[in-house]
């Protein structure tokens, strides 16, 4: 059983106009870590709580004067709601971000964060242990056994899942394909 992005994503998505002030945006962000930014009604970027800290507070700028369009992060990195959590984690690491916008049928349906994934790691580990018990597979087989597939932790990105032996390293399907 794989955990899908739609199973752990946050469905509470807030969007703001690009001309909104950071002060107004910060008020809307109580309890959430990001907002999507719209231009002419279409979402094109994201502002996170980290963006506000690094780009406004740390620089001593006035949040009443700075607008969303001045600090918005683009482009949006998206993932399909039916993708597995492993791919979400891989994309976050690849793009050096902590949130992905979740889409279904070309519509935004949520946001998944690294925190959402971390909260579900115990369940992922339980699933892996159960599969190992059923199949007898071990996390890191010895190279001399010449096995080419297993379940474990990717040596490149640290994701948990199905691994393939590539040039002496155990890699997930996403790292192996690069």
General description of the model:
- Helix content is 34%, strand content 27%.
- With 178 residues, it is an alpha/beta fold.
- The strands form 3 sheets. A 3-stranded mixed sheet has the order 1-2-3.
- The radius of gyration is 20 Å and the shape is elongated.
- The two termini are 25 Å apart.
Provide the fold topology.
Elements: H1 5-8, E1 15-17, H2 22-28, E2 34-39, E3 42-48, H3 49-57, H4 68-71, E4 78-80, H5 85-95, E5 99-104, E6 107-113, H6 114-119, H7 121-135, E7 149-153, E8 160-166, E9 169-172, H8 173-176
Parallel strand pairs: 1-2, 4-5
Antiparallel strand pairs: 2-3, 5-6, 7-8, 8-9
Summarize the structure.
The protein is α/β, with parallel strands linked by helices and 178 residues long. The chain is built from 8 helices and 9 strands.
């Amino acid at each position: 059983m794989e955990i899908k992005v739609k199973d752990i994503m946050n469905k509470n998505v807030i969007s703001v106009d690009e001309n909104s002030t950071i002060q107004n945006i910060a008020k809307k962000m109580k309890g959430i870590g990001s907002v999507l930014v719209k231009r002419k009604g279409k979402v094109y970027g994201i502002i996170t709580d980290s963006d506000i800290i690094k780009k406004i507070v740390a620089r001593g700028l006035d949040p009443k004067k700075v607008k969303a369009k001045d600090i918005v992060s683009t482009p949006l990195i998206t993932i399909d709601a039916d993708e597995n959590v492993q791919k979400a984690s891989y994309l976050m690491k690849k793009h050096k971000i902590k949130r992905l916008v979740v889409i279904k049928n070309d519509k935004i349906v949520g946001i998944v964060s690294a925190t959402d994934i971390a909260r579900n790691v115990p369940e992922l580990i339980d699933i892996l242990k159960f599969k190992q018990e059923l199949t007898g597979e071990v996390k890191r087989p010895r190279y001399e056994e010449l096995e080419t597939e297993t379940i474990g932790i990717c040596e490149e990105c640290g994701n948990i899942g199905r691994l393939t032996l590539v040039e002496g390293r155990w890699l997930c399907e996403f790292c192996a394909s690069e």
